Amino acid sequence: MRDGFRIFDTHTHIGVARHSGRTFTADEMLSKMERHGVDRSMLIPFPVVEDYRATHDLLASAVRAYPGRFDAAVCLNPFVPEAEFRDEVRRCAEELGFRAIKLQPQYQALNPVSARSDFFYETALRHRLPVIVHTGAGAPFALPSLYILPARRFPDLPIVLGHAGGGLYSLETIVAATVCPNIFIELSSVMPHHIAEIMAHVPASRLMAGSDLPVSVETEIGKILTMEMADSDRREILWDTPAALFGG
Ligand SMILES: [Zn+2]
Asked: What's the confidence (pLDDT) of residue 248?
């Protein structure tokens, strides 16, 4: 809680990233949350890890250790054998209680418009896991507009466009959310003027905040707390929209 607002950080990473060398622990994230008034955070594995099962277990142990403070998302290379992919998503959803599934097309090159990718969306839908997809860097597969087609093929599947297209492609998120009621936008890594432009078209009931990394909690949550907008919109972005989507 900060300035009277409950805060849900819907996108952050802990664990060890093989590709970048970044390492963050649940305790580091929790201390950032305490310092900056974040009530709850969605923990997501980095897209390239040494052992995805061990990483999921690490996230699950953080969820158990701090009840009510963390949720967790599944993330693994979709090109492991398909049965293995489906089984790990099932394990995370049914046994570990995970609440979302992440696709990071910059490092996991799934073509989002190909029918060959349907197994990903079908698996998410089967376990009622909203999809969080990284958008921006990693084009073309990370282009926000490409998620219009799966959103239409799977109208009951919520798809969150992470990082709002990363600035360069933020206008595409407006198009995608306008034509697909099941598309949501997560606002980390874009500037306040991008957010204002998105808010001119997309209701706050489909927007949410994220930090992307523990080191960015103050900056990313701070921009939502301080930029000009109605407090009713701020309340939806910071809590109501993600709490409804991921389960309050
Ligand atoms: Zn991410």
From this structure: 57
Asked if residue 48 belongs to a domain, the reply is: yes
For residue 68, the CA-to-ligand 1 centroid distance in Å is: 21
Q: Is the pLDDT of residue 202 over 80?
A: yes
Classify residue 116: in a domain, yes or no.
yes
State the average pLDDT for the chain.
97
Q: 195 C-alpha to center of ligand 1: Å?
A: 18
Continuous segment of H or E residues that includes residue 77: none
What DSSP string runs through 82-95? HHHHHHHHHIIIII
Range of the domain at 92: 8-246
Distance 44 CA to ligand 1 centre (A): 7
Does any domain span residue 20? yes
Average pLDDT over residues 198-224: 98
Q: What is the CATH number of the domain that holds 138?
A: 3.20.20.140
The total domain count for the chain is 1
Question: What's the CA-to-centroid distance between 225 and ligand 1, angstroms?
Answer: 21
Rounded to the nearest angstrom, the distance between the alpha carbon of 201 and the centre of ligand 1 is 24
Distance from the alpha carbon of residue 188 to the mean position of ligand 1, in angstroms: 9
Count each helix (H run) and each strand (E run) in the chain, helices first. Answer: 10, 10
Does residue 30 surpass a pLDDT of 70?
Answer: yes
pTM score, whole prediction: 0.98
CA of 187 to the centre of ligand 1 (A): 12
CA torsion sign, 176 to 194 to 32 to 77? Answer: positive
Residue 1 lies in a domain: no
Give tens-digit pLDDT for 159-188: 999 999 999 999 999 999 999 999 999 999
Closest of 74, 147, 78 to residue 110, by C-alpha:
78
